[in-house]
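step=encode ok
step=design start
structure_in=
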């Protein structure tokens, strides 16, 4: 297809008609639930996360009303505990993280000039998992069954079933389900940024929003899995009485704090960096110039992410840590202010050097920076251990946290809302209502939370449902309560503005005169995204590339048509964005929703101890996943190549490290390995904390023979899988099938050998933390051995059905990636429990 062909208006009209037919969502509300277009999923995500925010806000208003005056009896102590537990949990798990994922799912395809992200069905699965888990956790308060141990759920008060009810299980299992959704979204976003950029968009030309989302999604891979590992240990103690946190049986409640805060402090930056990413998009627009210091802000974002994983212990300064630990983590906590300040100063300098056009989004951005800086300064204060000893568990920390979260997350999201609403709906929001809401939010936030610094320094403890009048804190608490209702009135004005939006006239295309790709969208609803996928030569192509918008609209770039009636986009190389292939994307399907419902059943039924039904639900989940993979992935195309314009032809099938599926498997296994490292951390934490680990005089060791036998079988499974991949690629299909069959047998034998050691040694996991953690590691690795067997059986079935050939071999290549990580898991597990440490 040449440029001359694109001059034909009739041809362009026919191409647009085919695009509309392919990308038009299903008709009817019920059928639209099956749509897997990321734009559609993203809108649902945003609305749902916003709804959870409003719910958590109502809970906060009830709490503040209870604390408005001393010795109030509006709610009972138990109800208050449920309120503050759900408020924190919903805001962090059901609003802050899902909202950034939702916004990214909407914006990234348009920012990258892609028709969609590579796994739209995975996004749909993530959304349904998030919705179901969120309703399960949030709805518990209406049945007086909500968790009441705080959003941190510290043992032993929460692990002892006689001290905590069903709410602890609802929190743990419900939020574990939601964490699956977060990891699924991270996989989608990472692969999208790395593989779906338009031709020419090298890494140093990516929009800063894409850089930030890439950094944050990678952070999720390393932050959320340790909490999942902690959840596993937590529920095993509650459901099976395995004493990981029971000090009387060799456990340690501090292990939970470590695993939680390894997640909990990076979590603050996981919700902060995407909000800063919105600033990185709107500041250049309203400064009317390129953002200054592009390399520095990328390095600062990466540096913030890196340092955020070295700060978690500053939440534990009062637990009796050695002085060397206090010094190290205090210094790291101070150091993170440096890359954070770099980002803020880059925005200020860009505005200083530009020709600023004041607007409602920019008002929110500047106001949020002011609030965030106050929170950052108090953060530097609590990072100093002696000060933290005084302020810990007081309202000073509550004030610091909310200044950071309101200035670093909530207000920036409202800035992005007013900035990107014309992109999503084609309508602008009201400047008058937006500015009114801003001043209500700004004044309310400061009135609500600034007095908490003072009340905290005067001794007001956190997490109390009332306080005596003699403390003299009634005035400060009343001021905070009034401020909270002013915040609520600001949010109410924004909701009113959103409700009035459908009756407003259409906005002009690119109403802010921005320079980045997302503003190629027209006010009309075009579900396919850009008219043609452009060639990128600048960070702000709308500003810098001549006739750029016209050429895109006329289909003068790549993939201007949907000739075969399929949803398609281009994938490119990771570093320099060279076109690699055209991939077919998932069409509307029930499978993501049904899979999420089945997996949700596993978590929910386990919560209520319906173990047999949970087992049935797990088999249903497995069946649905295999069906999803069989019918919806690794499709053999009807032809090898497809013209994309300008004389270029790209393959319709790729496998190996060039393919999005390979990257998805690699990234998923990184998350899996991180969760496993959390369990291994638990093993060595016990060993370093307790001199009697393993306990003296108790022959709990699983022996040497069975762990080494399991290790040998695991390594043999890996060797057979790698050999099958290589032989298959060289045309030895039958030999490869035999190797795969042998690998299945080896993997199944590995399950028996892995469990035989602790089983035949008579290790009672309820007796002591040592046999308990050994059993956990053995079970984890054996389950992964079983998953390897299932994956290999799937590969064998695909080969026997003629769906996998030496040319079309994505299945065996992706399973080999899993085999690499499984082999690493087997090595670490069996060397640890078999050789180290030796029992006295």
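sequence_out=
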């Amino acid at each position: 297809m040449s440029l001359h062909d694109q001059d034909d208006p009739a041809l362009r009209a026919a191409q647009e008609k085919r695009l509309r037919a392919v990308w038009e969502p299903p008709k009817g509300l019920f059928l639209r639930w099956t749509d897997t277009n990321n734009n559609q999923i993203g809108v649902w995500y945003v609305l749902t996360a916003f709804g959870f925010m409003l719910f958590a806000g109502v809970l906060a208003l009830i709490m503040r009303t209870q604390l408005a005056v001393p010795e109030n009896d509006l709610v009972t102590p138990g109800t208050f505990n449920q309120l503050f537990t759900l408020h924190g949990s919903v805001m962090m798990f059901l609003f802050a993280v899902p909202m950034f994922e939702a916004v990214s799912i909407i914006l990234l395809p348009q920012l990258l000039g892609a028709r969609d992200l590579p796994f739209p069905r995975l996004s749909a699965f993530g959304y349904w998992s998030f919705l179901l888990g969120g309703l399960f956790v949030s709805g518990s308060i209406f049945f007086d069954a909500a968790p009441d141990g705080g959003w941190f759920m510290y043992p032993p008060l929460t692990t002892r079933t006689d001290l905590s009810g069903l709410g602890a299980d609802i929190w743990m299992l419900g939020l574990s389900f939601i964490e699956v959704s977060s990891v699924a979204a991270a996989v989608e976003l990472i692969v999208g940024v790395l593989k779906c950029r338009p031709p020419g968009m090298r890494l140093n030309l990516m929009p800063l929003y894409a850089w930030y989302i890439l950094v944050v999604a990678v952070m999720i891979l390393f932050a959320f899995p340790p909490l999942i590992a902690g959840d596993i240990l937590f529920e095993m103690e509650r459901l099976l009485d395995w004493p990981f946190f029971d000090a009387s049986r060799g456990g340690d409640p501090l292990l939970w704090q470590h695993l939680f805060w390894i997640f909990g402090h990076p979590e603050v930056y996981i919700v902060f960096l995407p909000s800063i990413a919105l600033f990185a998009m709107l500041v250049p627009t309203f400064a009317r110039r390129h953002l200054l210091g592009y390399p520095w802000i990328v390095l600062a974002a990466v540096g913030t992410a890196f340092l955020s994983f070295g700060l978690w212990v500053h939440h534990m300064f009062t637990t009796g840590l050695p002085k060397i630990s206090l010094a190290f983590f205090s210094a790291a906590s101070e150091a993170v202010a440096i890359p954070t300040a770099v980002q803020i100063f880059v925005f200020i300098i860009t505005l200083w050097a530009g020709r600023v056009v004041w607007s409602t989004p920019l008002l929110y951005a500047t106001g949020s920076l002011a609030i965030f800086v106050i929170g950052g300064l108090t953060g530097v204060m609590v990072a100093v251990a002696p000060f933290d000893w005084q302020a810990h568990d007081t309202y000073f920390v509550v004030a610091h946290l909310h200044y950071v979260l309101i200035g670093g997350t909530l207000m920036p999201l409202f800035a992005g809302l007013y900035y990107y609403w014309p992109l999503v709906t084609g309508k602008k929001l009201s400047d008058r209502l937006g500015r009114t809401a801003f001043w209500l939010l700004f004044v309310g936030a400061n009135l609500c939370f600034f007095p908490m610094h003072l009340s905290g320094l005067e001794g007001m403890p956190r997490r109390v449902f009332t306080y005596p009048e003699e403390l003299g804190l009634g005035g400060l608490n009343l001021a905070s309560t009034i401020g909270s209702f002013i915040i609520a009135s600001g949010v109410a004005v924004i909701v009113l503005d959103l409700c009035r939006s459908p009756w407003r006239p259409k906005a002009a295309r690119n109403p802010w005169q921005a320079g980045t790709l997302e503003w190629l969208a027209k006010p009309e609803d075009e579900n396919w995204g850009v008219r043609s996928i452009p060639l990128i030569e600048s960070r702000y192509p709308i500003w810098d590339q001549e006739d750029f918008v016209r050429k895109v609209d006329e289909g003068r770039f790549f993939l201007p048509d949907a000739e075969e009636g399929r949803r398609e986009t281009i994938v490119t190389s990771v570093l320099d964005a060279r076109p690699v292939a055209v991939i077919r994307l998932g069409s509307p399907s029930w499978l993501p929703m049904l899979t999420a419902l089945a997996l949700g059943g596993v978590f929910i039924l386990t919560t209520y101890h319906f173990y047999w039904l949970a087992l049935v639900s797990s088999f249903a989940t497995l069946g649905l996943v295999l069906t999803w993979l069989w019918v919806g992935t690794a499709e053999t195309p009807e032809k090898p190549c497809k013209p994309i314009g300008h004389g270029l032809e790209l393959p319709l099938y790729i496998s190996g490290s060039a393919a999005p599926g390979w990257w998805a498997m690699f990234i998923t296994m990184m998350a899996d390995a991180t969760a496993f490292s959390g369990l291994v951390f638990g093993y060595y934490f016990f060993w370093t904390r307790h001199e009697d680990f393993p306990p003296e005089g108790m022959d709990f060791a699983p022996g040497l023979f069975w762990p080494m036998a399991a290790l040998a079988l695991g390594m043999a499974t890996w060797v057979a899988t790698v050999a099958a991949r290589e032989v298959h690629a060289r045309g030895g299909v039958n030999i490869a099938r035999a190797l795969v069959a042998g690998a299945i047998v080896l993997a199944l034998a590995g399950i028996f050998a892995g469990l035989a050691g602790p089983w035949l040694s008579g290790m009672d996991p309820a007796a002591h933390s040592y046999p308990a953690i050994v059993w956990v590691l053995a079970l984890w690795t054996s389950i992964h051995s079983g998953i390897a067997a299932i994956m290999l059986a799937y590969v064998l079935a695909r080969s026997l059905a003629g769906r996998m050939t030496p040319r079309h071999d994505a299945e065996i290549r992706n399973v080999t990636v899993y085999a690499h990580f499984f082999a690493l898991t087997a090595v670490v597990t069996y060397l640890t429990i078999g050789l180290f440490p030796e029992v006295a």
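step=design ok
step=annotate ok -> The longest helix spans residues 77-111.
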